[in-house]
Amino acid sequence: MTSSTPSTPAAKAAQKDPWDLPDVSGLVVGVLGGTGDQGRGLAYRLAKAGQKVIIGSRAADRAQEAADGIGHGVEGADNADCARRSDIVIIAVPWDGHAKTLESLREELVGKLVVDCVNPLGFDKKGAYALKPEEGSAAEQAAALLPDSRVAAAFHHLSAVLLQDTSLEEIDTDVMVLGEERADVEIVQALAGRIPGMRGVFAGRLRNAHQVESLVANLISVNRRYKAHAGLRVTDI
Ligand SMILES: NC(=O)c1ccc[n+]([C@@H]2O[C@H](COP(=O)([O-])OP(=O)(O)OC[C@H]3O[C@@H](n4cnc5c(N)ncnc54)[C@H](OP(=O)(O)O)[C@@H]3O)[C@@H](O)[C@H]2O)c1
User: Fold this and answer.
1) Model pTM score
2) In Å, how far from its chain's centre is CA 189?
3) For the chain, which domains are there?
């Protein structure tokens, strides 16, 4: 083979750098269920990094109250208005309300990049365990319910306690990002990367979201044993 053969390392070098991510600084991020711990934590970190963030709630006044508590230009709105006004919409409602919330916002979410961070978990006296959604995962349920949206999944393994801790400047963790379209995955990777200490890593298509969502049950076990707020790092990349 000569160096001009397409399968040589020289030809590979022409591929796009996997860490050459798009500029997402101008995109508006909405957080549905943003009045909860995870939503408020993500809203705080993203807004602090300079992102325009709108917190969504079933009640606009609750959203406004949460937004006022965060500052950094965060706004509050009811979930529908939040979805309508955002480019990227993070779903941060409990698994119990997941399907109903998405079904009711199908129209507002058309064409949006929807980022699901919902972990379907059960709890009993032995601790947390993974539930098995009929569609395979929360993310696949979202994709099934929102055929006209661009669904990705990310932010499952973050500790809401650390996200909300204003004494911490950095969050030391990787964020596994799943999705079907490379361009959408890269937008979410770039969004995660705006938060100091955080790195977004492509982790497969939505059919592999179940393992990522379920892993939170293991992290909860780690946290209980070691009194920690554990995150994840993917090595050798
Ligand atoms: N907490 C964490 O550390 C963490 C980390 C990673 C991922 N997650 C995932 O993020 C999601 C949110 O977690 P969280 O701890 O923030 O939950 P949460 O506080 O229980 O709920 C978040 C918000 O969702 C809204 N909500 C509650 N029940 C609802 C329902 N039946 N239908 C629609 N909306 C409802 C509420 O807002 P309004 O009443 O204002 O509408 C609530 O403030 C979960 O799916 C979780 O698996 C959490």
Assistant:
1) 0.94
2) 9
3) 28-226 (3.40.50.720)
